[in-house]
Amino acid sequence: MNQMPSIKYFGTQLYGKQIALLDSGRYCTPTPDRAYLYFGEHRLNADYGLRFFTKDSPAYKLNEFLF
Q: Quick one: DSSP state of residue 55?
């Protein structure tokens, strides 16, 4: 199940990204960023898909807070 939190400071939205609920709702985390790796020249299909957090990003800090 996914939710959309809205973190605001005096009416200004600071964060609004999807959050995933894991482990029967006991753990929630922001959805990580997504990237793909392509090996070889002129490839159309990705060889690997990655999901990651960048340290000191708002999603990473929210993940630490929610954990």
A: T
Sheet with 19-22, edge to edge strand ranges:
2-3, 19-22, 27-30
Domain boundaries, the chain: 2-66
**Structure confidence by residue, pLDDT tens digits, 32-60:** 889 998 887 887 888 899 999 999 888 89
CB 18 within 8 A of CB 5: no
Chain-centre distance for alpha carbon 58:
10
H-type alpha helices, 1-67:
58-66
pTM: 0.68
